[in-house]
Design a protein that fits this description.
This protein is 25% helix and 26% strand. Helix 6 links the parallel strand 14 and strand 15. Helix 2 crosses helix 3 and helix 2 crosses helix 7. By secondary structure, it is an alpha/beta fold. The protein is globular, with a radius of gyration of 19 Å. Strands 3, 4, 5, 8, 9, 16 and 17 form a 7-stranded mixed β-sheet that branches. A 6-stranded parallel β-sheet has the order 12-11-10-13-14-15. The structure holds zinc ion (2 copies). The site of one zinc ion has 5 residues, from loops.
Length: 334
């Protein structure tokens, strides 16, 4: 089969491309796994961090992609959860140990020996992939393949970031950066009655934010028009942490949604943290977060701004993501 692999991680800048297309054998599902024929795979910023080497590769020549929508085409030994022909989603969280102190206390996102799709295990930038059956999701019928793909990481991680941001009922939420994840998270917050302010440098993204119902949209480091109860930093830009903390009201919380962030400049205690402001990270998600998000997304009829690319142009999709040329979420289509 055709698959993309991260060859030598480095800048995605046209001259050198770390993502290369190769021919690989079609994978066989192991015990408790199923094989999926890929129909669509979202392009997540994490894939870009992996390709560029911001994230250490866990395995040479891994196939990225952890927002996979496909159809079960073979069951591994002992697999019973899915049938051949089922449409399922393959997410970032590929496996947890089930026995560590985090797994047994409902915090499997913090498992000490997890595996992740497209980092430890080959992902969905390929014609086929395999998944542990217990980590796949059923997908609501209201979403077609291209719409469903970004829900699987951008949507789920954004949902967890919203939980971590402790947004109160009817509260004021600031969103820094407005791409694939943020535009989904904003809709969940709005449906829950929040007032949402979006800070992003892209004028197209500002326009999308206003169309979706944001109360305001302005530049990346422009102060929102009112103090915030909660904020989420989606842009992987450490220098935005101080202005986002300064924009919080007393007692407010800033959650950093990404797996990678450039360095945070020195903070000023009085201005950024005092008065019980809280700065939190977000690490992966539990399967319960995923189930809850997909159900809520279907119920509120979340609208997905997806930009489809042919599977054989994954290199171009990553380049466009890197250069802020994707309004919404890029999705590879087989
Ligand atoms: Zn564990
Ligand atoms: Zn992701």
């Amino acid at each position: 089969m055709q698959a993309w692999v991260v060859d030598h991680p480095g800048p995605v800048d046209g001259a050198h491309h770390p993502l290369v297309r190769v021919e690989k054998p079609i994978p066989e599902p192991g015990p408790g796994q199923v094989r999926v024929r890929v129909r669509a795979c979202g392009v997540c910023r994490t894939d870009l961090h992996l390709a560029e080497g911001d994230l250490e590769p866990r395995r040479p020549r891994v196939t990225p992609g952890h927002e996979v929508v496909g159809v079960v085409d073979r069951l591994g030994p002992g697999s019973t959860r899915w049938q051949e022909g089922d449409r399922i989603g393959v997410p970032w969280l590929a496996h947890t140990c089930g026995v560590c102190r985090f797994c047994i206390s409902g915090r499997e996102n913090l498992c000490v020996t997890p595996r992740f799709t497209g980092w430890d295990d080959d992902g969905g930038y390929a014609a086929f992939t395999v998944v542990d059956e217990d980590y796949a999701y059923a997908l609501p019928d209201v979403f077609d393949d291209v719409e469903a793909a970004p829900l699987l990481c951008a949507g789920i991680i954004g949902y967890r970031a919203l939980l971590r941001a402790d947004l109160p009922e009817g509260g004021r939420l600031g969103i820094y950066g407005f791409g694939g994840s943020a535009h989904l998270t904003a809709q969940v917050a709005l449906a829950r009655g929040a007032r949402v302010h979006v800070m992003t440098r892209s004028e197209e993204a500002q326009q999308l934010a206003l169309e979706l119902g944001a109360a305001s949209a302005g530049g990346a480091d422009v102060a929102p028009p009112e103090p915030l109860d909660s904020a989420i930093l989606f842009a992987p830009v450490g220098p935005l942490v101080p202005p986002a903390l300064a924009a919080l009201d007393r007692g407010g919380t800033l959650a950093v949604a990404g797996i990678y962030l450039s360095d945070i400049p020195a903070l000023h205690y009085q201005e950024h943290l005092f008065e019980e402001r809280t700065l939190r990270s977000v690490t992966a998600n539990t399967r319960r977060d995923g189930e809850a998000f997909l159900a809520e997304a279907a119920r509120i009829g979340i609208s997905v701004s997806a930009v489809p690319y042919p599977m054989d142009r994954a290199d171009m999709a990553l380049e466009d993501l890197r250069n802020d040329r994707v309004n919404g979420a890029a999705v590879l289509v087989s």
